[in-house]
């Protein structure tokens, strides 16, 4: 009996080729979802705004199919919702959701601060202080606040911790935090003072003080954000 040998790896190659279009489509959907998410997070697409598939497809240079799948992905993540007679819209978070998320974030950010105390270098402290100076601008650039926190996460040296904090942050449009401070000069002054105290606690290598200052800062930021949504949730694209 003659047995026809099949060269090693040929079967796998055929399977791989067959799966290639699916992988490419999946990657396109992920890329499209990321692009839409970035526009929402930056405020380019504001909370409550309608997400029209044709407009998004034209803006991103793709067909409606990846747009439709990307919107489903963002809906499952809670960033958008589908409303009767309006379709997909950027979701307006409920104030209680903000408070719950920031309660968890406060503990995680406090842990990152405690880990960073004693590890942060003088150059890193200088950069931290420069970000605080940038926060004095009006409106304060979101990138400065992001860098303040991400630098501490880097020094803390725990990627899982940093990733979990990022996941919480990505549940809410980032530009809103800047709007909250822009609307309230007293809140801005308090926010800057909180950042300064965190930086000085880290400079003093005081892990518990750094943890406490960061936790209080995040709780205060979450409460201010929740109240902002409370004032607007009844009217933002709701009639």
Automatic annotation (TrEMBL):
Keywords, comma-separated and alphabetical: DNA-binding, Transcription, Transcription regulation
HTH gntR-type domain span: 26-93
InterPro entries linked: GntR_C, TF_FadR/GntR_C, Tscrpt_reg_HTH_GntR, WH-like_DNA-bd_sf, WH_DNA-bd_sf
Keyword DNA-binding assigned: yes
PROSITE patterns attached to this UniProt entry: HTH_GNTR
Keyword Acetylation recorded: no
SMART domains (UniProt xref): FCD, HTH_GNTR
Domain of life: Bacteria
Protein name: GntR family transcriptional regulator
Lineage: Bacteria, Bacillati, Actinomycetota, Actinomycetes, Pseudonocardiales
